[in-house]
Amino acid sequence: MVDDRKLAVLRAIVEDYVSTNEPVGSKALAERHNLGVSPATIRNDMAVLEEQGYIAQPHTSAGRVPTDKGYRLFVDRLSQVKPLSGAERRAIESFLAGAVDLDDVVMRTVRLLAQLTRQVAVVQYPTISNSKVRHVELVPLNEHRLMFVLITNTGRVEQRVVELQEVIDDNRVAHLRAVLNACLDGCGLASVPDMVADLPERLPAEDRPVAATILSVLLESLVDRHDEKIVFAGAANLAGADFTVGLRDVLEALEEQVVLMRLLGETSDLSALTVRIGSENPYTGLQGTSIVAAGYGSGGKQLARLGVLGPTRMDYPVTMGAVRAVARYVSQILAAS
Amino acid sequence: MVDDRKLAVLRAIVEDYVSTNEPVGSKALAERHNLGVSPATIRNDMAVLEEQGYIAQPHTSAGRVPTDKGYRLFVDRLSQVKPLSGAERRAIESFLAGAVDLDDVVMRTVRLLAQLTRQVAVVQYPTISNSKVRHVELVPLNEHRLMFVLITNTGRVEQRVVELQEVIDDNRVAHLRAVLNACLDGCGLASVPDMVADLPERLPAEDRPVAATILSVLLESLVDRHDEKIVFAGAANLAGADFTVGLRDVLEALEEQVVLMRLLGETSDLSALTVRIGSENPYTGLQGTSIVAAGYGSGGKQLARLGVLGPTRMDYPVTMGAVRAVARYVSQILAAS
DNA sequence: CTTGGCACTCGGGAACACCGAGTGCCAGAC
DNA sequence: GTCTGGCACTCGGTGTTCCCGAGTGCCAAG
C-alpha cells in the first residue's frame, strides 16, 4: 500500500539526501518540507517505506537513505526531467557550434557534458555501421604502398595503409578508385561486404590481386571498428564525490572501452533517456554509480549514445535534463554538417 | 661537504622510502643496508643532509623523507636507469607491433606505458610542424562543399569541410588537386604558408576565389593543430597512491591539454630523458608529482614526447627505464610505417 | 671520527565517556 | 482508524586522556 503521502515522503527523502549527502531523519523532513504532518507520522511512513525496500538505515538510530529501488521509483514516478535554463541552452549551442570536424564535435560534447553535470561524461562515436560511404580515396604513398581512406556521411574518416605485392602505377590506382567509388558511393556500411563481393571479377585479370588486397583491408577496417570508440571526460569530478565503492574501480571501468560500451549501449531502445541505477548495473565496481544516457544522431536516426556517470546519489532531474538537451543539440549539429 | 658515505645514506633513504612509503630512521637504515657504521653515525650524517636540504622530517621524532632536492641528487648522481627485462621488452614489441594506424600506435603506447609503470602515461601526438606533406586530397561532397584531406608522412590525417561560395565541377577540383599536390608534395608543414603564398596568381582567374577559400582552411588547419593532441591513460593508478596534494587537482591537470603539453614539452632538449621532480614543476596542483619524459620520433628526428606522471615518491630508475624503452620502440614502429 | 648511552619528543592508537540525532512504541486525541 | 506527543533506548561520531615506542639530539668515552 503506497499512498500519496508516502510517495511525497520518499520524494522528500531523495531530494534532501541528494542535496545534503546525509541520512535524513523524520524531524528534518517535517521542517524542510511542509508535508502537513508531524514527525511521528512521518516515522510511521518511513517504517513502511523501509519495509518495502525503498529506503534503508545505514545503522540503527540514523536517518534514512534511499535504496536503488527507491531511486528507481523516484525517477520513474516522482520526478520530471528538468529543462535547462535559457543561459545554459545558449552556452551549449555556442560551444558546440564552433566544432570543425567530427573529432572536434565529440570532444566538445564530452567536455560540455562533464562541465554541465559536474560528473563524468561519456560519448560514443557515431556507429559506423549506420553510416554510408561518401567517398573512397586511394593515395599512392610509394610503389608498394597506398593509403586507403574511407569517408562516411557522418564525417568520419577511416584510414589504412595497404601493403601491395606488386608495383602499381597511378593510372591503375585511378581506375581502381573510380570503380570502387562507382560501386560503393552512398552505400550503407553494413552492405559494403555484399557490394564488393563480386567486384574482383569485374576487373581486368591483372588488377584482381591488388583489388583483393585492398578489399580485404577495407572489410577489415569495417569489422575492426566494431569495437566502437568511446571517450570520456570529467574524471576530476569523481574526486569530490565519495563512492561507497573504491574510486579506483570506477576509473578502471572508464578506461575499459568495452565496459563503457556496454554501459551506454546495452539497451533496446536507442532513442529514450535511459537511467541505470546502482545495482541495476551489471558491473561490480560500478555498484555505487548510476548512468544516465541518451541516443543521438543526425536526421532522426540514432547513431550512437552519450551519457554521464555519477554517484547513485545524483540529482536525476537535472542530470537527465542536461543529457537530453546535449543529445538533441549534438544531433542538430551532426544533421547540419 | 658531501662525502661518499653521506651519499650512500641518501641513496639508502630514497630507496627505502620509495619501497616502504614510510619515513626511514637511522636504526632501520643500519639494519637493512650494510653501511658498516652504527646508527649514531648515520644520525650525524642525516643531520648534515637535512641541514643541506636533501632530506626532511615530517615532524620531530620521526624518520627522514627525501626532499625534492634529495630526489634530484639521487636521480642525477646516485642512480642508473634500469633496463627492462627481456620479457618486458618482448611484451612491448609484440604489443606495439599490432597497431594498424597512427591513432592505434598512440593508443597502444599510452596504455602500454601506463601498465608497465603502473602510473599515468601521457603521449603527445607527433608534432605536425615537423612532418611533411605526403598528399593533399580534395573530395567533392556536393556542389557547394568539399572535404579537404591532408596526409602527412607520419601517417597523420587532417580533414576539414570547406564551404564554397560557388558551384564547382569535378574537373576544376581535379585541376586544383593537381596544382596543390605539385606545389606541396614533400614540403615541410612549416613551410606550407610560404609555398602557397603566391599560388592563386598561378591559377586561372575564375579559380582564384575557390583556391583562396581552400587555402585559408588549409592554413587554419595547420595553425589550429598547434594545440597538439595529447592523450593519457592509467588514471586508475592514481587511486592507490596517496598524494600530498589532492587527487582532484591532478585529474584536472590531466584533462587540460595545455597543461599536459607544457609538462611534457617545456624543455630544450627533445632527445634526452627528462625528469621533473615535485616543485620543479611549474604548476601548483602538481607539486606532489614527478614527470619522466622522453622524445620519440621516426628516423632519428624527434617528433613528439611521451612520459609518465606519478607521485614524487616513485621508483625513478625503473620508471626511466620503461619510458626510455617505450620511446625507442615507438620510434622504431613509426620509422617502419 | 665513531660509538654507545641516555633523556626527550611527539605522533598515533586504544580506551573511554558523552552527546545528540534519530528511532520504535504506546497511549491518548481527533 | 489515523495522527500526535511523549518517552525510553540505541549507537555512531567526537573529544579527551593516556600510553607506547620509534626516533632524535647530545654527550662523553673509545
UniProtKB/TrEMBL annotation, chains A, B:
Source organism per UniProt: Streptosporangium jomthongense
HAMAP family in the record: HrcA
Protein's name according to its UniProt entry: Heat-inducible transcription repressor HrcA
PANTHER family: HEAT-INDUCIBLE TRANSCRIPTION REPRESSOR HRCA
Record-annotated Heat-inducible transcription repressor HrcA C-terminal domain positions: 103-320
Entry's family note: Belongs to the HrcA family.
Lineage, uppermost ranks: Bacteria, Bacillati, Actinomycetota, Actinomycetes, Streptosporangiales
Main function: Negative regulator of class I heat shock genes (grpE-dnaK-dnaJ and groELS operons). Prevents heat-shock induction of these operons.
Keyword Heme annotated: no
Limits of the HTH deoR-type domain: 34-60
Entries under InterPro entries matching the protein: DeoR_HTH, GAF-like_dom_sf, HrcA, HrcA_C, WH-like_DNA-bd_sf, WH_DNA-bd_sf, WHTH_transcript_rep_HrcA_IDD
Superkingdom, natural source: Bacteria
Protein keywords: Repressor, Stress response, Transcription, Transcription regulation
Gene: hrcA
